[in-house]
């Protein structure tokens, strides 16, 4: 279901946040490859603690959803925003993800009722991946460029994880 009315979307997200429930969303695109692959279904947790550096969040960006890794934060309190980036993207996302635009945190890839792959990357590995994502340095850009060439960009689809 796609809700194009921003006010209705915000109300739906607030109600969902109060329940602390999970939902499932399909992944399309390659920006989070190989952690998330196009065609997989992920479990998204809404509510709870704020996202941490290294976690993958789903953000409402206009009328589309995007799943990218948190690589930093800016501001505090009501002004808190998150810097995000796709693992295979060469640069961070242009705009910061405001806390009120975050749909939830990805817990893992699901098949049926079972989480078959944890990809929240909490703790050390998520933090290391976030640091590497921020680096934009001598090692990261060539490796990402190689990954992009290996998986190709022929089958890009709009939607989550653009």
CATH superfamily: Umud Fragment, subunit A
Strand proportion, as a percent range, falls in 25-35%
How much helix is in the residues? 10-25%
Gross morphology is globular
Order of helices and strands: HEEEEEEEEHH
CATH fold type: Umud Fragment, subunit A
Tell me the structural class.
Answer: alpha+beta
- Low-pLDDT windows of residues: 153-159
Overall pLDDT level:
76
Question: What do these coordinates show?
Answer:
This protein has a single domain, classed as Umud Fragment, subunit A (Ribbon). About 4% of the residues have low confidence. The two termini are 18 Å apart. A hairpin with a 2-residue loop joins strand 3 and strand 4. The protein contains 3 helices and 8 strands; from the N terminus they run H-E-E-E-E-E-E-E-E-H-H. It is an alpha+beta fold and 162 residues long. Strands 1, 2, 3, 4, 5, 6, 7 and 8 form an 8-stranded antiparallel sheet that branches.
Short description:
By secondary structure, this protein is an alpha+beta fold. It has three helices and eight strands. Strands 1, 2, 3, 4, 5, 6, 7 and 8 form an eight-stranded antiparallel beta sheet that branches.
């Amino acid at each position: 279901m796609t809700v194009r009315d921003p006010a209705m979307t915000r109300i739906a997200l607030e109600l969902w946040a109060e329940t602390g429930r999970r939902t499932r969303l399909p992944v399309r695109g390659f920006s989070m490859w190989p952690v998330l692959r196009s065609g997989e279904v992920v479990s998204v947790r809404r509510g709870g603690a704020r996202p941490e550096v290294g976690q993958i969040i789903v953000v409402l960006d206009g009328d589309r959803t995007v799943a990218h890794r948190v690589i930093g934060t800016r501001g505090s309190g009501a002004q808190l925003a998150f810097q995000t980036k796709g693992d295979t993207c060469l640069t961070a996302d242009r705009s910061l993800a405001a806390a009120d635009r975050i749909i939830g945190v990805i817990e893992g890839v699901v098949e049926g009722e079972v989480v078959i792959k944890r990809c929240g990357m909490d703790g050390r590995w998520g933090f290391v991946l976030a640091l590497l994502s921020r680096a934009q340095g001598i090692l990261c850009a060539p490796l990402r460029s190689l990954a992009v060439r290996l998986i190709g960009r022929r089958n890009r689809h709009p939607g989550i994880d653009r």
